[in-house]
Specification:
Helix content: over 70%
Number of helices: 20
Oligomer: single chain
Length: 362
């Protein structure tokens, strides 16, 4: 029996080995390349799936989820530049500027000519208050893509933050030349003019921004604050009211309209606006301080002091609240407390605090 079985086993064994040995080198290479291609396709599919999930999460403003999915996409495909780019954008949106900078560093190692990566890394530097490197990256982005209106615009905002309003105007103007419908650029150029006390030019730019995009409530708020500086109270109130009609939860517009009404002696209407601002944003210190001013005018000094204290609880660095509380304390016969508050306001650089302290506390 053994003599019968053994040759059969050997024949089977030879048959199996023969199938492999009979492949030519070219056929073996083809077989291996197909296996590699299948693995590569699976890796790319996994990377793309994670990337798409990241895009979906970003669209829902789920920045943490987006970052996590873009990281997964990159782990499958370490040279997927779009995943790096969008991961960095998500990190900027989440104000994770250190991480964003690192992401764009890695992207630019892969593709040093990626102009938008320089633009976004400049935003990260800007978030880190590293203005020098931010400027370099904006300049690099512009040198690679001189028609990118957003790069000129962001460079302008950087100049604005550094109070270089003339240079900011130059870059905002360039952005407008690139994109005639750039409402934000008109608005921010208007803010440069306002900071330079050129109110007519500021109004012209704000109004152009409003024409380009009538749904920007903050532009109308800027028109209102500028017209108030020009003593055009009717125009100011109309602009604030339009801003509120666009965004009924715009607490800044309620507060600013209240200030305008208060200056006109319309205390009841002003009080309603300050209270509305607080109901929308309970942490907005200026509205508490302004409401304190209303109660002071109504000779309710205790309530005025309480509201001023509330404002300082929300923002301990709000000098106006120290001034108002000091005035209320003075009327409540707390001279020492009044001087302490005015001195605090003076230390914060408030001119009114300096004047009150000098006149009453020496």
């Amino acid at each position: 029996m053994k003599k019968t079985i053994l040759p059969l086993l050997l024949l089977c064994s030879y048959s199996v080995i023969g199938q492999t040995d009979e492949l030519t080198p070219r056929e073996i290479a083809y077989r291996d390349s197909i296996a590699l291609l299948n693995n590569t396709n699976a890796t790319i599919a996994n990377s793309q799936e994670a990337y798409n999930k990241g895009i979906a999460a970003f669209g829902k403003k789920d920045y943490s989820g987006a970052i996590k999915n873009f990281e997964s996409s990159i782990s499958y495909d370490p040279k997927f530049t779009a995943a790096y780019y969008n991961k960095g954008i998500a990190e900027n949106a989440a104000e994770k500027y250190v991480e964003a900078k690192g992401t764009f560093d890695n992207l630019l190692k892969i593709d040093p000519s990626y102009s938008k990566a320089y633009f976004q890394r400049a935003r990260a530097y800007q978030g880190l208050n590293d203005y020098l490197n931010s400027e370099k990256d904006y300049e690099k982005s512009i040198s690679i893509d001189p028609k990118n209106a957003n790069a000129y615009y962001n460079y302008g905002t950087l100049r604005f933050l550094q109070k270089d309003y003339n240079d900011a105007i130059k870059y905002f103007t360039k952005a407008i030349e690139m994109n005639k419908e750039f409402a934000f650029a008109y608005n921010d150029r208007g803010s440069c003019y306002r900071m330079m006390d050129n109110y007519p030019k500021a109004i012209a730019d704000y109004e152009e921004a409003a024409r380009k995009n009538p749904n920007l409530a903050f532009v109308l708020n800027n028109i209102g604050t500028t017209k108030k500086k020009m003593k055009d109270y009717t125009g100011s109130l109309a602009a604030f009211s339009r801003a509120i009609s666009i965004d009924p939860n715009f607490h800044l517009a309620y507060n600013n309209r209240g200030v305008t009404l208060m200056e006109q002696g319309k205390l009841a209407d002003a009080q309603k606006d300050f209270e509305k601002a607080i109901s929308i944003n309970a942490n907005y210190a200026p509205a508490y301080s302004n409401l304190a001013a209303i109660y002071f005018k109504q000779k309710n000094y205790k309530k005025s002091a309480e509201l001023s204290t509330k404002a300082l609880e929300k923002d301990p660095a709000y000098a106006e609240a120290y001034i108002n509380r000091g005035m209320a304390k003075e009327m409540l016969r707390d001279a020492n407390g009044a001087c302490e508050d005015w001195n605090k306001a003076k230390e914060m650089g408030a001119e009114i605090g300096q004047n009150l302290f000098s006149a009453n506390c020496n």
